[in-house]
Design a protein that fits this description.
It is a single chain. Helix content is about 80%, strand content about 0%. It is an all-alpha fold and about 240 residues long. Helix 2 (about 10-40) runs antiparallel to helix 3 (about 45-60), helix 2 (about 10-40) crosses helix 5 and helix 8 packs antiparallel against helix 9. The longest helix has about 40 residues, at about 190-230. The radius of gyration is 22 Å and the shape is flat.
């Protein structure tokens, strides 16, 4: 086993890491958008919105992520051809981001729903009492407070997405795992490249974990300081 091969092909591995980060943050952005829609939909006063949000969450959480990736990459083009009569070749990277984002949205929805419901109902009543509409109260009063409580689970979701992005290698996206597989096949030795990729994953997950811990401490400290000074009135 020649571990110097890792340094010889560091450019390819770093490119794979960059692709992995693109997939992770692209999917996280889409997942947060869908999560906010589905999470607020789950606690909507309108029954049909609650049903739609619940169906989305149950389908996505109840099926394997790999199945969802294959559906979007292999199944969706067939459906498109059946409906339109035209062929469609999906971009593997974009398809991977969409599949992971939709999957992440279902989990983010539960995080956001729990975060919103953890805020005392008196906060909404007080905000409405100042003349804000329900939507304004949600975005200006409830969500900012709930976001602080969502940071730990959202940080965990980011780390899960980072690791699950390796599943996209099954549809040919040259992220970290795909790069390790290609290099291993070229030299008929997989251990050095798998170890190298493992070190990169560990470095990224550790870095993100420390960042979210620091962010959580900073927001908690800032919130406490403002409350002590009376700058933020306790509406609860």
């Amino acid at each position: 086993m020649d571990f110097s091969l890792i340094f010889k092909h560091q450019d390819m591995l770093l490119q794979g890491a960059w692709t992995t980060l693109q997939i992770t943050f692209g999917a996280l952005s889409l997942g947060l958008f869908l999560g906010i829609l589905a999470g607020t939909g789950r606690i909507s006063r309108r029954l049909h919105i609650r049903i739609i949000a619940d169906i989305y969450i149950q389908i996505i959480r109840g099926t394997p992520m790999l199945l969802q990736i294959f559906f979007f990459y292999l199944g969706f083009p067939q459906i498109f051809m059946t409906v339109t009569g035209e062929s469609y070749t999906p971009d593997p990277l974009l398809t991977g981001i969409v599949a992971l984002g939709i999957n992440s949205g279902a989990y983010n929805a539960e995080i956001i729903r729990a975060g919103i419901q953890s805020i005392n109902k008196g906060q909404m009543e007080a905000a409405r009492g100042t003349g804000l509409t329900h939507v304004q109260a949600m975005f200006h009063v409830i969500l900012p407070q709930a976001l602080k409580r969502m940071i730990p689970p959202l940080g965990n979701e980011l780390i899960v997405l980072l690791k699950d992005s390796s599943l996209i290698s099954t549809i040919g996206v040259a992220e970290l795992m795909f790069t390790a597989k290609v290099l291993g096949a070229r030299y008929y030795t997989y251990v050095p490249f798998l170890v190298g990729v493992g070190v990169i994953y560990l470095t990224l997950t550790f870095g993100f974990s420390r960042f979210f811990n620091a962010l959580e401490r900073k927001l908690s400290a800032g919130s406490g300081a403002r409350e002590e000074k009376g700058a933020v009135p306790d509406l609860g």
